[in-house]
């Protein structure tokens, strides 16, 4: 993982954090940012798009488990 991957993770993390609470898809926003800024469409970016959602998934699972 190089410095470029770290910068991509930071940018996509910021987009995720800003758009997660909106009633529209934060994943869609991350995909659009990825396309507009022409980030590489490699395995790291695809994996990051899935892993960044884990916090919301775990919070929802914990909320409905109780």
Defining traits:
66 residues; mainly alpha
Which stretches are low in confidence, meaning pLDDT under 50 for 5 or more residues running? none
Number of helices: 4
User: Got a strand count?
Assistant: 0
Series of secondary-structure elements, N-terminal to C-terminal: HHHH
Task: Work out the oligomeric state of the chains in this entry.
Answer: single chain
Radius of gyration: 13 Å
Distance between the termini: 38 Å
General shape: globular
Q: How many domains in all?
A: 1
Helix content: over 70%
What would you call the structural class? mainly alpha
Care to describe what's here?
The chain is mostly helical. It has one domain (3-65). Helices cover 74% and strands 0% of the residues. The mean pLDDT is 79.
Topology of helices and strands:
Layout: H1 3-19, H2 26-36, H3 43-51, H4 54-65
Q: Outline of this structure?
A:
The mean pLDDT is 79. With 66 residues, this protein is mostly helical.
């Amino acid at each position: 993982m190089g410095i470029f991957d770290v910068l991509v993770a930071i940018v996509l993390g910021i987009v995720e954090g800003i758009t997660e609470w909106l009633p529209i898809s934060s994943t869609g926003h991350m995909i659009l940012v990825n396309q507009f800024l022409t980030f590489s469409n490699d395995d790291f970016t695809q994996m990051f798009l899935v892993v960044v959602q884990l916090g919301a998934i775990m919070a929802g699972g914990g909320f409905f488990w109780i």
